[in-house]
């Protein structure tokens, strides 16, 4: 028996000192992709590259029981202002090690050894999945089209993140 699609409430956060709603290509791409897939946009925001500002928004979202997943874009590079992994990783109850590994493996076919510069990470915090993606729209497209569209779909077998959602807050 085929499982039914279950829409996920997803928040999207763009981390950037320079982007606005008018030119946020990566945030727009993620919004369009998740809505086209049948998911719900719980909230969308842009925040400056500041670990405390990033952490404040993500903390608010993980405290909101209506938000089931968060996708961030930007701030995963290695420059002095890139701090998304540092801002968010400390919030994780569990890290999803395979996400970053798989993202870099898939990216290698397109950007070759430049994928080594990606610090894409993912984890679970307070029962909420969090995925931190690079800021390029190409990287967001890769992450959504090759990983997230499948793992955020209850019909994907043998396993997916949606099946785990009811059990994420178990003690």
How would you describe this structure to a colleague?
The protein is α/β, with parallel strands linked by helices. The protein has one domain (9-164): 3-Layer(aba) Sandwich (Molybdenum Cofactor Biosythetic Enzyme, Chain A). Helices cover 38% and strands 19% of the residues. It has 6 helices and 6 strands, in the order βαβαβαβαββαα. It has helices at residues 25-36, 51-63, 84-89, 97-111, 137-151, 161-164, and strands at 9-15, 40-47, 69-73, 94-95, 121-125, 128-133. It has a 6-stranded mixed sheet, sandwiched between helices. β1 (9-15), α1 and β2 form a beta-alpha-beta unit. The longest helix has 15 residues, at 97-111. The model has no long low-confidence stretch (mean pLDDT 95). One of its GO terms (biological process) is Mo-molybdopterin cofactor biosynthetic process. InterPro entries: MoaB, MoaB/Mog-like_dom_sf, MoaB/Mog_dom, MoaB_proteobac, MoCF_biosynth_CS. May be involved in the biosynthesis of molybdopterin. Residues 11-155 form the MoaB/Mog domain.
